[in-house]
Write a structure and sequence with these properties.
The complex is a heterodimer of chains A (476) and B (250). Chain A has helices at 9-18, 20-40, 44-63, 65-78, 89-102, 114-118, 121-127, 137-144, 161-171, 181-198, 224-230, 251-263, 298-302, 318-321, 326-329, 340-351, 353-356, 368-372, 379-391, 408-422, 424-437, 445-451, 464-470, and strands at residues 81-86, 107-110, 131-134, 201-204, 208-210, 215-220, 234-240, 244-245, 270-274, 288-294. Chain A is α/β, with parallel strands linked by helices and 476 residues long. Chain A is globular, with a radius of gyration of 26 Å. In chain B, the strands form 2 sheets. In chain B, strands 2-1-3-4 form a 4-stranded parallel β-sheet, sandwiched between helices. Chain B has a 4-stranded parallel β-sheet with strand order 6-5-7-8, sandwiched between helices. Classes of the chains: A alpha/beta (476), B alpha/beta (250).
């Protein structure tokens, strides 16, 4: 399922729920990731304090974002990094293409970058006759199988070892079927090493861009990020404009939160700090480093005091691992660059409620995401906000596609409900009628949905108000 | 478990709309447990619903009108307001002030919200209720509602009350932290996902090998019991207040 074809959430949900192999793969993987996170963040008070620090750092950054971006640009340029600004994903794609063309590059090795997914960079480059190659092992696997990632951190989380073995055997010329992990890794490594050596361009994402020093920080575990950013002669880094931080000392707490939340690691195997291209006399490193800073609707999100909390996200993916909805329907059901709870709030803001509004129904508001979010994004509260804008009955919305679900019937239901809850005599009549209806209500609409897997609720003949009165409980 | 010290001879009771419509006995048992501690309970007859259904569905204006109606019904006193549901209590304690954040009624609402306690929280942490078990030996398990756990943080209070009952063996359920799939209107707006969630919850509860689960929230109970009944399972949930009252009365 690619992310650009027509979005039918109901269909995707049904497909995800029906896939029992997917369910068991996700259950296994997310249980492991949750357990690892819990083991690392074992002290609740310390964890809470660290999360507050993370929230405060990102909130401070957002409060002075334009200034910090200017500072980042200035210091990057001083370090020899060429800085480009892209308002839209089209502009960003074009910038990447121009850099490739300028160097006569046909092949690009890519480290993991969610912004490149947001840009649909691979399909753009392929249409232009270029060859983008994913080097993150998970991304490598799903690129072989022509699938988008289904998780922010673990792109092939929906696949088990057997499925991966099958993909290798089917898609890699000369590979024989094996489930032996070491053999699979050797196969991938052999292919990738050759590409690193021959590619003209290496692309990466950015986890933190430090304004005061002009440093790009890259967090990874496989070393593929380091290869992509040091072996090819040209390095292109992509970042969403919210990835800037003010100073170097902001990095350690955010880095700690990112590793701990994402994979339960104290520190990743690789942490790259890139401060410019190869200098005179240096023996390695790219000769050119480009930084493309993408807006794609982020500055509009920043303009709303409540919605801007979304921009604190450091893309750790832990809200996905803890979400009872994501772990059941899988990432592909969201048919969006960012799935899970963060995708539920971010995608309708990036693409509009008219396109991705259906996502806001995909939450029981259980607060599991909010409880673990390393930067304390109030995801449930933002889901409620988006639900409100999806109806936009009071015409106060600001988002693209606001009011796209406008429904007179739904509004009438809630108006009626309001009367039964604000006018005591109507409430009494409603309780009486419900009691009299017993189990005889017709199974249509919401009740039909309810009874598909449950018995009908039996309304009591006597309400609590009746019982309290009978027992002589004081009422004022 | 949060730290509470404030006691009051009189408390108000917000019974919740689900107790009114479906589980009046559970609501009544909560009142009796409070009275048993020598507390005078006032139950205003004009109370209705906390407003959460509209709030969660994206209709905050309607939710606010309903919320303000409740705030005013309980005004004129600073006595605690006890709620036999973690979810409704969380709505009134934490979401009411958020809803009125930019309104002149904010302080009136906040004053009300500060009076809110979940039932088992008040019984355990404020009243330090002591129970003597008069029932036969039983094994059971406990289901925590998301908002009892993550908003009111009263799950440990509920469990502490159950642990006082010496003939009751409480078995922990796997994935206790996970939502049962009710989520109010979520259960009818995303019925397939909700069904998958309640199915897994029922499986986990049954895997404890017990035939009873206790909970402090009627919403979860209606959801899980409805599913268990549809599957013709002998397992059934009961509200903690109703269970405790049965046990101490023998």
């Amino acid at each position: 399922m690619d992310n650009q074809s027509k979005f039918n959430f109901k269909h995707n949900v049904e497909k995800g729920l029906a896939d029992s192999e997917l369910r068991s793969n996700l259950k296994f993987a997310t249980n492991t990731l949750r357990a690892k996170r819990k083991a690392l963040f074992a002290d609740p008070e310390e964890t809470h304090a660290l999360r507050e620090t993370g929230r405060n750092i990102k909130a401070r950054v957002l409060s002075r974002l334009p200034k910090l971006l200017g500072k980042l640009e200035k210091n990057c340029i001083r370090n020899g990094i060429r800085v480009h600004w892209a308002e839209t994903t089209d502009e960003a794609n074009q910038l990447v293409l121009e850099i490739m063309d300028k160097h006569g590059a046909a092949k690009m090795v890519k480290g993991k970058s969610m912004v490149s997914e947001e840009m649909h960079l691979n399909s753009f480059l392929e249409k232009k006759g270029k060859t983008p190659l994913e080097t993150d092992l998970g991304e490598f696997i799903i690129q072989l199988n022509n699938e988008p990632p289904s998780h922010i951190i673990v792109p092939a989380v929906h696949k088990n070892r057997r499925q991966i073995a099958r993909i290798f055997a089917d898609k890699i010329p000369g590979a024989t079927y094996t489930e032996d992990v070491d053999t699979l890794l050797k196969t991938a490594r052999k292919i990738l090493r050759e590409h690193y050596r021959t590619a003209h361009i290496g692309l990466s994402g950015v986890n933190f861009a430090v304004a005061e020093t002009g440093t790009l920080c890259l967090v990874e575990n496989e070393g593929n990020g380091r290869m992509c950013t040091t072996v090819p002669p040209v390095h292109v880094a992509l970042m969403g404009l919210e990835k800037v931080v003010e100073k170097l000392e902001d990095v350690p707490p955010l880095y700690r939160l990112l590793c701990g939340s994402a994979t339960g690691q104290r520190i990743t195997t690789y942490f790259n700090m890139i401060t410019g291209p190869r200098k005179k006399g240096e023996r390695d490193g790219p000769t050119e480093v480009h930084l493309i800073i993408l807006d794609n609707g982020r500055s509009k999100i920043l303009a709303d005091g409540q919605l801007q909390e979304t921009l604190r996200c450091i893309r750790c993916g832990t809200c996905l691992n803890h979400c009872p909805v994501y772990t059941r329907i899988g990432g592909h059901a969201y048919q969006s660059t960012y799935p899970g709870p963060i995708g539920t709030i971010l995608m309708p803001q990036l693409e509009g409620l008219d396109k991705k509004g259906a996502l806001v129904t995909a939450s029981s508001l259980c607060n599991a995401c909010e409880e673990v979010c390393p930067v304390m994004i109030p995801i449930p509260e933002l889901i409620r906000r988006l639900r409100n804008e999806h109806w936009d009955m009071d015409k106060k919305g600001v988002l693209k596609g606001r009011g796209s679900k406008k429904s007179i019937l739904e509004a009438l239901v809630w108006k009626t409900w309001k009367f039964t809850c604000t006018i005591p005599w109507i409430n009494r009549i409603q309780l009486k009628l419900m009691g009299l209806s017993g189990g005889f209500l017709p199974e249509i609409g919401p009740l039909k949905a309810w009874t598909s897997v449950r018995t009908k609720p039996v309304f009591s003949k006597k309400s609590l108000k009746d019982l309290a009165k009978k027992e002589g409980i004081r009422h004022g | 478990m949060k730290n509470h010290s404030e006691t009051s001879k009189t408390v108000y009771y917000f019974g919740t709309c689900l107790a009114d419509m479906v589980y009046p006995q559970a609501g009544m048992c909560g009142i009796k447990l409070l009275q048993r501690e020598g507390i005078r309970v006032i139950y205003p007859q004009s109370q209705t619903c906390c407003g959460q259904p509209a709030y969660n569905s994206g209709f905050p204006s309607e939710a606010k009108e309903v919320a303000l109606t409740q705030v005013r019904i309980f005004s004129g006193s600073s006595a605690p307001v006890i709620v036999p549901s973690g979810s409704c209590a969380g709505m009134m304690k934490y979401h009411y002030p958020a809803l009125f954040r930019d309104d002149p009624e904010y302080f009136e609402v906040k004053k009300f919200s500060d009076r809110i306690y979940e039932l088992t929280q008040y019984l355990n942490s404020v009243l330090h209720a002591r129970y003597e078990d008069k029932g036969p030996p039983i094994r059971l398990t406990w289901h925590s509602s998301c908002h009892a756990m993550r908003e009111m943080e009263c799950t440990e209070d509920s469990k502490a009350l159950i642990r006082q009952l010496e003939n009751v063996e409480m078995v922990e359920v796997e994935n206790e932290h996970e939502c049962c799939g009710f989520g109010g209107t979520f259960s009818v707006k995303q019925p397939e996902i909700s069904a998958a969630m309640v199915h897994d919850k029922a499986e986990n509860l049954r895997a404890t090998g017990t035939e009873k689960f206790l909970t402090g929230d009627c919403g979860c109970m209606m959801n899980i019991n409805g599913h268990l009944e549809k599957q013709r399972s002998p397992m059934k949930g009961q509200h903690i207040a109703e269970f405790i009252l049965e046990r101490i009365n023998g």
